[in-house]
Structures are given as C-alpha cells and as structure tokens.
C-alpha cells in the first residue's frame, strides 16, 4: 500500500486567503510551484500516492479565509491521507529574520519527528538557516487534520537572501521536503 501524502500549497492565487508579498513576489505562487515539484517527485516513487490542494495555478479554495482552510483539511481527511504537508513562505517586519521552520500541533509526536526530517532535508539542500521545529496548536490545518500534519515555512520573503532562494530554488525546496520524507520513512538506499 503506497503512503498517501496530501500536499497543501498554502494560500489562494487571488481573492481571499492570499499570502504574503514582497517586491512583487507572492507566497501563493511559490507554494504552488514547490507543491507541484514535490508531487512530481512523489508520483515518480511507487512508495507514494499524492494529492494536491491546488492542482492548477488558478485553483481557489473556499469563499473566505475560514472556508479556504476548512476545504484543504476536508480534502485530506476525506481521501483519507496518511500525512498532511502544508507549504508556506514566511514574512516578518524585521528583514534580518531568515530561515526555515516547521510547525506541528504537538511535540514528540509522529508529526514532530516527520517535521525534523523535512526541516533537515530543506536546510541540507537549500542552505537556509535552521529555525527548528515549533509547536503551534492554534494553526487550523494542524488542529483539524486527522493524520500527522506539518506546516513548512520554507523561508522569509521579507529577507533578501531568503527571497532569492524562494525565487531561484523552488525545485530545491521540494527536493528537501522529499528527501526528508525518504529519510523519515527509511526509504533511502
């Protein structure tokens, strides 16, 4: 039985629940592309099955922020997925803040250990700063999914070096997540 991975590309391309923006670079475009690359990698491996929250660049989920999040969770729960990965890009008022962090609902759970592997994979491939695995039980997609779930903040749009990575290394970010999955599941030869 293949491992069913639900890849949620954070935010919508327009309207409600759009993401961060900096210097004309939009979070929702980055998350879309990274998710597509990750899905291609997963589809190339018979150990996995994958579904995307945004299969096309135009896909808009929900009619407001709350229903957008609800729809993503429902898609994963109804499938039902074995694991849920939500992809985001971060932003901060302080342009010096940089790096990758992965959020989970609770520490020392399956999600937490998966998050550690994914974080290590991204840092290794892309070279971002390791900001650690962080617990945030208030995040809807972590709270309402019925499977181990992680929310990956790839890097900061508000930091110059990170923004360049988010523009130039989208395939690398996907590769880092994929490598993290492989090591987590013990599928590395």
Helices, strands, pairings?
Blueprint: E1 3-9, E2 21-22, E3 25-26, H1 27-43, E4 48-52, H2 65-78, E5 83-90, E6 100-104, H3 110-126, E7 130-135, H4 140-143, E8 149-156, H5 160-168, H6 170-184
Parallel strand pairs: 1-4, 1-5, 5-8, 6-7
Antiparallel strand pairs: 2-3, 6-8
Explain how this protein is built.
- The chain is 40% helix and 23% strand.
- It is α/β, with parallel strands linked by helices and 189 residues long.
- Strand 2 (21-22) and strand 3 form a beta hairpin.
- Helix 1 packs across helix 6.
- The chain starts with a strand and ends in a 5-residue tail after the last helix.
Short description:
This protein has 189 residues and is α/β, with parallel strands linked by helices. The chain has six helices and eight strands, in the order E-E-E-H-E-H-E-E-H-E-H-E-H-H. The longest helix is centred in the N-terminal third of the chain and has 17 residues, at 27-43.
The amount of beta strand, in percent, is 15-25%
**Order of H and E elements:** EEEHEHEEHEHEHH
The residue ranges in which pLDDT falls below 50 over 5 or more consecutive positions are none
Record the strand order, biggest sheet.
4-1-5-8-6-7
Gross geometry: globular
